[in-house]
Amino acid sequence: MAGLLSKFHSAFIIFFFLFVVAFSTKPQPPSEIPRPAFGFGKEKMTHLRFYFHDIVSGPNPTAVLVAAASSTNKSRTGFGGVSIIDDPLTEGPDPKSKLLGRAQGLYASASQEEVGLLMALNFVFVDGKYNQSIVSILGRNSGVSKVREMPVVGGSGIFRFARGYAKARTHTFNVTSGNAVVEYSVYVMHY
Ligand SMILES: *[C@@H]1O[C@H](CO)[C@@H](O)[C@H](O)[C@H]1NC(C)=O
Ligand SMILES: *[C@@H]1O[C@H](CO)[C@@H](O)[C@H](O)[C@H]1NC(C)=O
Ligand SMILES: *[C@@H]1O[C@H](CO)[C@@H](O)[C@H](O)[C@H]1NC(C)=O
Fold first, then answer.
1. pLDDT tens digits, residue range 138-173?
2. Do 121 and 84 touch, CB atoms closer than 8 A?
C-alpha cells in the first residue's frame, strides 16, 4: 500500500512538474517583458572621434607584448604575438591634448599572409557625459588597409546596447620607435 502511494506520489510529482514547466517556459510576448529600470528613449547615433596613442617603446610603453610563439619572431607578420594595451585616447593627435579615455584590451597577430590583428578593446571614456561609459570593439585590424573597419559589439553606461563600427586611420607611425598615433572615428547606435 505504501509502495503504491509513493508510486502515485511520484507520478503526481512528475505530472505536476511537466505541467508547471510547460506553462512557465511558454515564451512571453515582447511587450510583457518588463523593461529595465533605466530610461529608454529613441535609439540614437553618436559619432566619437579621437586619437589613439600606441606606445610600444621608451620608458613608459602603453602596449606590451605578453605572449608569443617560438616562431613569432621568424614570422613576417609577427604571427602569434599578443599585446596588452592601455593606450591613451586624446582629442587631438598631440599626445598632450585633452585626454578623453583609454583603449584597454589586447591585440594579437592572427594572420600569416599579411599583417592582420585581432582587436579586442574597451574604449573607457573619462571625460564629460561619457565619463565611465564604455564602447567595446571586436574586429580585424588589417595592416595593409588605409582605413580599417571594426565592429562595435556592445557597451556600458551611456552606451548600453551599443552597436556600430569604428574606422581607424593611421595618423603617424614612427618606424624607429614603433609608436603609432591612430585616428579613430566611431559610430555608435545606443539609447
Ligand atoms: C626568437 O626568439 C627566441 C626565444 O623566444 C630566441 O631564442 C631567438 O634567438 C629569436 N630569434 C630571432 C631571430 O630573434
Ligand atoms: C569621472 O568619474 C570619476 C569617478 O566617478 C571621477 O572621479 C572623475 O572626477 C570624473 N571625471 C570627469 C572629468 O568628470
Ligand atoms: C621616432 O622615434 C625615434 C626613437 O624613439 C625618435 O628619436 C624620433 O624623434 C621619432 N621621430 C618622430 C618624427 O617623432
1. 999 998 899 999 999 999 999 999 999 999 999 999
2. no
| CATH-assigned architecture of domain 44-190 | Beta Barrel (2.40)
Give the start-to-end residue ranges of the domains of the chain: 2-32, 44-190
Q: How confident is the model at residue 186 (pLDDT cuts 50, 70, 90)?
A: very high
Long-range contacts of 124-133 (CB under 8 A, 24+ apart): 125/89, 125/100, 125/101, 126/99, 126/100, 126/101, 126/102, 127/98, 127/99, 127/100, 127/101, 129/158, 130/48, 130/100, 130/101, 130/157, 130/158, 132/157, 133/157, 133/158, 133/159
The amino acid at 60: N
The three grid cell numbers given for residue 13, joined into one nine-digit string: 510529482
Task: Judge if the beta carbon of residue 175 lies within 6 A of ligand 3.
Answer: no
Structure confidence at residue 80 (pLDDT):
98
pLDDT for residue 41 is more than 70: yes
Ligand 1 binding pocket includes 71 (Cβ within 6 Å): no
70 Cα: distance to centroid of ligand 1 (angstroms): 7
Kindly give the number of the ligand 1 atom that is closest to the alpha carbon of 68. Answer: 5
Q: What is the pLDDT of residue 183?
A: 98
